[in-house]
Amino acid sequence: MNRRDILKYATSTVLLSSNLAYSDEEKKSRKTQDSLDKKKTKHPRIVVIGGGWAGLALAKNVKYRVPNADVIMVERRDHFVSCPMSNEWLVDLVDLEFLTHSYLDAARNNNYTYLHAEVTDLDKKHNILKTSIGDVPYDYLVFAVGIEYDYFNFTQGDKTLEQKLKTQYPAAFMPGSEHITLKEKIHNFKGGNFILTVPSGNYRCLAAPYERACLIADYFDKHKIDGKVIILDANNDIKIKADGFHSAFKSLYKDRIQYQSSVEIESINLDKKVITTGFDKIPFADASFYPNVKAPNLLEKLGMTRATAHNRVEADINQYTYKFRGSENIYACGDVRPMGFSKSGNTAHSEGLNLAKMIADTIAGKTPLWQSPVTTCFSLLKTEPEKCISLYTEYGYNKNGGMIFKNNSTDEAWETNGLGDARVAYGWAESMYSNMFD
40, 66, 359, 428: which has the fewest C-beta neighbours closer than 10 Å? Predict the structure, then answer.
């Protein structure tokens, strides 16, 4: 199965049957389950839940480091669609094939098992993961399950409003139908205010809402659409690459982007299309509401979460070992973890590499050592000519266990830096996809 086959499948069925598997895949799942039901061998079994950037990196690299291990990646989706670079897809800078990849190829190329299933429960006492197609025994278990949305700040528990926001004005920070809906909104926009919200806390991809605003404004310019992008930011300022984004808003999009900070949304009237904040009533023609984020409901159900300074619900793990508290063989990594590291693709990928080494060292009887994940982030500001800004950072802990930034550097001089001419963002993405799937 190649990427073009997946693309055809995705574009024709994603809205109706995104949770269905191919018939060949169902046969493979039944065959895999037969082998899982057999008694485990003497070789360690490492089960990774989640096929995002962290899960893919971990599955590939723990198999590389422990060749005799039985590595299984459990993922409920039948193909991968990247969130990083999806802003570019929204405005036709890349096609869907660029973002879409095969879990089957990743597993085959890297000698681990892809199990197309949904996790339903966990028997910690007997080391058994329960899935929609049967039980999976494990020796080591990793939750690389990403995030879910937390709409409470917008809805105060109003489930009807939450459902409308999800379906009619999606955030598009989880891959799938949300992005298709947002792209249609942008391409069919006739004019007026287009609202983008930015949540508080540690949300997925700190720079992406601001990059998205720039690319939408650029699209409006190109297509001579009489529209304005209004950014309602719950934070007191742009949280990342602020100088670059502010200068772009001022110099490139003075009449296209309106940025408002410290915005507390008091109510959203979808019938009248009016947002009430602590200072104003803002009418809108269309919108994309990005709520806070949280750990998936599955972890809440399993009693493996806690509140943090960043978000209401995140994985309850030891920040140095990635182990869930009270467990010696269950870990978390990627966007689900509670530390203040950027919830982004590159960060999650590097964290998957680090945890793979920690688990391999544990199996080998060595003392595992914590290593910093790495955040590399490119943000496109304009397309013709292309302008781009970037950031690189590592992390550490102070003596009190608080997170600190290390080796931090940014390139926000978009007028002169040449990053756009070099198309480095596209090269970075291609290399990352190759690393995960080849």
Answer: 40
